[in-house]
Amino acid sequence: MARIECPRRTLIDYTLTVAVSVAAGVAAITSAFPELHLSRVALGLGFVSLLAIANLRGVRESGRLFAVPTYGFIGLILTLIGWGLWRVSSGEPPVPAPVEPLATFDAGTLTTFAVLTAFANGCTAMTGVEAISDGVPAFKPPESKNAAATLTMMAAIAVTMFVGISYLAYSIGAVPSDRDTIVSQIGRAVFGDNTPLYYGLQVVTMAILVLAANTAYADFPRLASIVARDRYMPRQFMNQGDKLAFSNGIFALSVAAGGLIGSSAATRTS
What we know:
Helices cover about 70% and strands about 0% of the residues. The chain is mostly helical. The model is unreliable at about 1-5 (pLDDT under 50).
């Protein structure tokens, strides 16, 4: 039983990674363009479809493909934190535009919803750790040393971003909202509304979140084929398409993630 428990959890984790990453990417872009808010489910399903089509055609992760949004995101977030901290320390803290907070949000109470949301958001950091640990052989020699250095750098950047954004959110009084993300509220306050830096921040945030979901498309079908080979899943998951991709695994992941996105939106509106 222990032999298959971990793969099962991992397959579920990959499905949640796609759904959560795509939903967060849609939230980033709809925060910048509020007129798209009513179309967020269609946008999410569209992004999932694009990822599925790309992987069915044999497209794989590319360093150059990820480099632009990754470096753009890191650069703009660090600029946001540095600029925001300078304004706070100078005695002129940025003031965010008023937003409608979530109905379940209570600034004075640590609710179950807040705990579960924080736990889910914190778990997303494990995706990067897993990607590095699984890809150690792809590093240049000495592989283990370079992988460790990359992991250390990733942890330093993640902690800097988390602490900086958390402090700015507390300083300016940003609150969770269904229509404007915390990063968007801070971006509007620091960079100014309708400025190129603000829109650039939201676009690279959307891009890096959607591209992050592609990691699951690379690993879910392969893991599903291994589990199917051991006869714990239907054998159809071992079939490869014309582009040598595990097509059934890609379809299954897309349908499951799309279902989560649609059901989550239906739950919120009910």
